UniProtKB/TrEMBL annotation:
InterPro entries: NGN-like_dom, NGN_dom_sf, NusG-like, Translation_prot_SH3-like_sf. One of its GO terms (cellular component) is cytosol. The keyword Thylakoid does not apply. Residues 2-101 form the NusG-like N-terminal domain. Keywords: Transcription, Transcription antitermination, Transcription regulation. It comes from the Bacteria. Gene3D superfamilies: NusG, N-terminal domain (3.30.70.940). This is Transcriptional activator RfaH. It comes from Undibacter mobilis. GO terms for biological process: DNA-templated transcription elongation; transcription antitermination. SMART domains: NGN. Coiled coil: none annotated. Pfam families: NusG.
Length: 166
């Protein structure tokens, strides 16, 4: 489809619902998601969450499409606009976000945040404040660091959310 990407603000926690209803109306949509580890009732699970909570992207040509119907779509609060005209998003932004997706269409935040050899620091757990070099991603929730311990280089596996740039 030809056109530009536009940002749609959704009702709280209605991104998926709004996307489904917009697709049913014939709009092409993009809802970037990432994996997040959550703990609830003593159990840990991995869920997908919107990268931009409360927003999704819709592709259309405002000169051709009946875009005003977007504001009346179930789950949608409004299309972001400058007065009467919807505000488009540079397609490079959407392309860059899509380029960070893995093969299942999920944004890999660890890969997007750190590059191999980057200095990082452990922020929690038994190795708190240990500094090392980012090496690799083990899975969506764990990363490998190269750290100096007892005078030698050791590979250390830690939760992805437990590191920050040093």
């Amino acid at each position: 489809m030809q056109g530009n990407w536009f940002v749609v603000q959704t009702q709280p926690h209605c991104e998926v619902k709004a996307k489904r209803h917009l697709v049913n109306q014939g709009f092409e949509t993009y809802l970037p998601v990432y994996r997040r580890r959550i703990r609830h009732a003593g159990r840990t699970s991995v869920v997908t969450r919107p990268l931009f909570p409360g927003y999704l992207f819709v592709l259309f040509d405002p000169e051709v499409s009946r875009w005003r119907s977007i504001n009346g779509t179930v789950g949608v609060r409004q299309i972001l606009s400058d007065g009467e005209r919807p505000r488009y998003l540079d397609e490079k932004i959407v392309a860059e976000i899509k380029a960070r997706e893995d093969e299942s269409g999920v944004i890999d935040l660890a890969a997007a945040t750190f590059v191999r050899g980057q200095a990082v620091r452990v922020t929690e757990g038994p190795m708190v404040n240990i500094e090392g070099l980012f090496q690799d991603i083990r899975d969506e929730s764990r990363v490998i660091l190269l750290v100096s311990l007892l005078g030698r280089k050791v590979r250390l596996q830690v939760p992805a959310e437990a590191i920050e740039a040093a």
